[in-house]
Give the backbone structure.
Amino acid sequence: MSAITTSLAGTPVAWKLPYRGRVGMACLISAESAIFTIFVVAYLYYVGKSFSGPTPREVLETPIFYTVCLLSSSLTIHFAGKLLERGRRGTFLTLWSLTIALGALFLYGTGQEWHRLIYEHGLTISTNLFGTTYYSLVGLHAFHVTAGLIMLSIVLLSGLAGRVGPEQSARIDVLSLYWHFVDAVWIVVFTVVYVLGR
Amino acid sequence: MSSDAIAIQTAEAAGRPWVATLHEWVTTVDHKRLGVLYILYALFFLVIGGIEATIMRIQLMHPHNDFVSPQVFNRMFTMHGTTMIFFVAMPILFGFANYLVPLMIGARDMAFPRLNAFSFWLTAFGGLLLYFSFLGGNGLYGAGNAPDVGWWAYAPLASRAFSPGHSSDYWTIALLASGFGSIGTAINIIATIISMRCPGMKLSRMPLLAWMNLVMSGMVLLAISPLSAAQIMLLVDRYLGGHFFDTQAGGSATLWMHFFWIFGHPEVYVLIIPCFAFASEIIPVFSRKPIFGYPVMVGATVCIAFVSMSVWAHHMFTIGMNSYANSFFTITTMAVGVPTGIKIFNWLGTMWGGKIQFKTPMLFCIGFLFQFLIAGLTGIMMASSPFDWQLSGSYFVVAHFHYVIVGGILFALFGAFYYWYPKITGRMLNEGLGKLHFWLFLIGFHLTFDLMHIPGLLGMPRRIYTYEPGRGWETLNLLVTIGAFVQGIATLVFVANLVISYFKGAKAANDPWDAWTLEWSTSSPPPAYNFASIPTVASRRPLWDLKHPEDPDSRYE
């Protein structure tokens, strides 16, 4: 009574709109991209402006192996999602665990690099401008990897309890969208810090 | 059917203890209740921000006044600006968006109801943190309580050395928390509009309010995030000994300015675009004509959003950028006036030849049109960088942006209150008090902000706590203060109207204004589920189609 139910000429019969989870994640990614852009701009603006050492050229080593780990985790999560859609839970869980392992390995790499920088070269966030911008930018990315790993692990635990099936694959898709974003950001951070910034 | 359901609900509510009602409101995820919470929360801070403004105006009433100390004056202008932008304007507009967008697109709730509640409470705690600084800002240093670094918090004022204690930290964390809240709400509004529209509600048939809130939310994602990033950097500087904005270690104070204004200028459009949306809904209904140039309105909104992302450094003409940067930002700033002008002509085109009804919502919208035009014109004056070099940091600038925020945003908001109050509460606001509110506020506004331009032209800088006599500023400042009091009284009339009408106002029908958008098709106030059955629409004015089956809009689409 209160609502209009008149179906007038020209009303589409099939009415399908985009999945809200994907739209929401796309929005979150736009906002996150803006945050990262500001940190990247700050990093590039301050390259070579530190008054004292150590400088990036002296202390940074290109983390090729860990980069390969993180980027290949994008492939594993992609195929994990595809397999879940087809209902193959066992292989899904294997690839999903592999994704988590690769992400964790990357974080270990970051931790190791920071340990080396702090204990061998005495570079902390307050040492000079390079330290401030480097730890902020790489740390912001590592924070996003950590958040992603926590979410991936929750899915893994639910999956081991047998609660993740093909009917959840739309949600799993949303999470892998986030993970792809984290990987894409690393390509930018890698380029800025280890290629352009030296 | 749905009105029966409401009758049962109210009967239940009458017998329920207040703790249960409170618990229901605190734990709610309903978009309408959260909308009301946002609006009430913002109105509370509007009164606080208004009191801070009044304290400043009393201090500046005559030369060498000592109503408050210089330190308190600094805190007042910092808190007034921060409060009004982040804890009044943003939440009140999000409140209306929350309440209206699902109703107008025929949805039962927002896309993510729990995220919606989370975002509201983040914003709410942000406001509490900011005001907790009055108690906790001192820290161990005895360094003065509330933030006093201006709402821009320019470096190095906000650094540890110049802002000891915790006042700047409360400012930073409050803005960070409310910023995340804003981003959450923006994500929610976009997902709702993209994914929750009722059958037949194509993008080209959406009410302009939904369109403009979609654009506004997109801008929030891209404008608030840089502010959050800059606040994180400031926290790194203040707590971890970082050097982002520390000029002693090679850091740059200018970078903070850029980061702040990359947020700061789009923010103006984040606030004004929803007000354009109110005007675009109210003016057609009270002109008894459909909106003139719907596609152009949408295009102009998107265009404003794009251009306004590249105008920020017109706030920084006086810092000594090179001539290319000055020219670029002058041109983009002037260019943003073009789509805005298109909108003003469209609203005039809507009114032209219409049977205009001068009810209170329409009066406020006409005031908005007139004052926003003038605000835009002074904006174009200052877009020209040589002119800005003379007047940057003067009371002319203060008058200009208050013309935008009070004359434009607040007037449109008052119009929205009078227009949608019947839908939200089921009672009409009193027309007599409404007209009194309008005329008093109009007089107070023009007394304050028309005259405020002149001391600016005479060289009175902003943010000074007092001034020397004999510069020709005294009479003007006295009149400006009197105008502020008139506005204060008008606001009290408004609050009285809100309260009295809630209990004693005339009962509102479902569609008291004979309007055309979906929110008027459900009861006033709407039931928790909004629509008993999800509506189907076939044109931009579904209620017109329903009321005029012999000549529906859908025939011409």
Notes: Chain B has one domain: 2-556. Confidence is low (pLDDT under 50) at residues 1-8 of chain B.
